[in-house]
Specification:
about 425 residues; alpha/beta; three-stranded mixed beta sheet; 8 strands; about 45% helix; about 10% strand
């Protein structure tokens, strides 16, 4: 297997292939099967309902023996409280996908010729300005919930839509609405292309990777091939996660993060720009805080990324959203004696987690496990929060200390 590729099951669809059902939609989308087959835009209330993930809770189960209540705590892993930024992200991803199809209508007379021309115009040395097509940049520090939120939102749109007939005419076409890749650690366009072919094979049962992974295939031939495959299957949105792999502070190279030559990194950046410009496929880049700093200064695509998506997800402040989140989370309590969420506990909870939702869930889970196993009274106190946080959040102690002290120089030195 080529280095950097994932172990994926063969002949297995990541999501079920959905048969196209064409819906009534807004005027600018009508007559385009790629748009009419997409889910209808959701209202704010519908988005909230779809996003929310609140497991069943039965207060009577707090009377169960401790060894059983410990198992009930696994429901915390399923908890998701939607906030305004999640609703904005869901709407904007829908707009990115729909917008990409406005200029790609397979029913249009000159569609085939235009797509061939787009592929022919790909040049691996291209470094032109970014087109008006919107793309996105989603960043935030580790623990903010970017990847979990994004995966949940992407699941609203069927990844593969199979068309067979449109308005009485034969139309055999597998539409891939979105594809998510991880930025290769070596930052090479070749590695990204191979990962792209592998994911497409996984979704469609094709053999693109076998056709293009041979050593005789140069990067210059792979890039146009990726373009052909992307247009052949009407790719609507390309997501590249862990984009901070392109950012490498001085002295950061090692066995996991090889030294990346600027020329290699620039080729990948230029290639991403081309996907937007030439193919008409928007790109959503996802990464940590370092990615924001690096891309803002180094990549032309970052100029367009603020058009739709909020560029950076901040941690919670001690405000109404933190109160909403902690109130919803605190409900999932399986201790013998209920501990009310007082202002004092909420303040200490924030101090220990610094408003990072992933750490908040982990700490709340850890505190209850500790009390069920070792606590006589099973009551949450500020001292218990501090004691459990030292153990449960120890791997993130440097990050949390820097956040408490507002030490931004230290934060910039933390890789993730």
């Amino acid at each position: 297997m080529v280095k950097g590729l994932m172990e994926l099951p063969t002949n297995h669809y990541q999501q079920p292939v959905v048969e196209a059902e064409y819906k009534e939609t807004v005027s600018i989308y009508r007559g385009n099967p790629l748009l009419e087959a997409l889910p209808a835009p959701m209202t704010e209330k519908e988005l909230y309902t779809r996003l929310a993930q609140k497991p069943e809770y039965n207060e009577a189960e707090r009377k169960l023996p401790g060894h059983l209540r410990a198992h009930l705590l696994q429901s915390l892993n399923l908890f998701f409280q939607p906030l305004s930024r999640h609703q904005t992200l869901a709407q904007d991803i829908s707009l990115l996908i729909c917008g990409s199809y406005l200029t790609r209508n397979p029913m249009a007379r000159h569609y085939s010729g235009e797509m061939k021309e787009r592929v022919a115009n790909i040049d691996t040395s291209f470094a032109g300005p970014v087109s008006s097509l919107q793309s996105g940049l989603l960043t935030g520090m580790s623990g903010i919930g970017k990847t979990f939120s994004l995966d949940r939102i992407l699941g609203f749109t069927p990844q593969v839509i199979r068309h067979t007939e449109y308005k009485g005419c034969a139309f055999s076409h597998d539409q891939v609405t979105w594809l998510k890749l991880e930025c290769p650690s070596d930052a090479s366009s070749r590695s990204l292309c191979l990962a792209f072919f592998q994911k497409m094979d996984w979704l469609l049962g094709t053999r693109y990777l076998a056709n293009y992974e041979g050593s005789h295939q140069s990067t210059s031939s792979m890039v146009p091939a990726l373009g052909r495959v992307a247009l052949l299957h009407s790719l609507g949105l390309l997501i590249i996660d862990e984009i901070q792999h392109l950012y490498q502070p001085e002295g950061a190279a090692g066995p996991i993060r090889p030294n990346i030559a600027p020329s290699v990194r620039n080729k990948l950046l230029n290639f991403i720009v081309q996907v937007v410009n030439t193919l008409g496929v928007p790109v959503l880049l996802v990464g940590n805080s370092n990615a924001l700093d690096f891309l803002t200064s180094a990549m032309r695509l970052a100029r367009r990324s603020t058009g739709l998506l909020r560029p950076h997800w901040m941690r919670f402040r001690e405000d109404d959203e933190w109160k909403l989140f902690t109130n919803a989370l605190w409900k999932y309590q399986y201790l013998k004696h209920e501990t009310k969420l007082t202002d004092e506990l909420r303040r200490e909870f924030y101090r220990q987690t610094q408003g990072l939702p992933d750490y908040a869930v982990k700490l709340y889970d850890g505190v209850q496990h500790y009390l069920i196993n070792d606590g006589e009274d099973e009551v949450i106190t500020p001292d218990v929060l501090v004691r459990v946080a030292k153990e449960k959040l120890f791997p993130n102690a440097i990050l949390l200390k820097a956040l408490r002290e507002s030490n931004y120089d230290e934060l910039r030195q933390i890789p993730d």
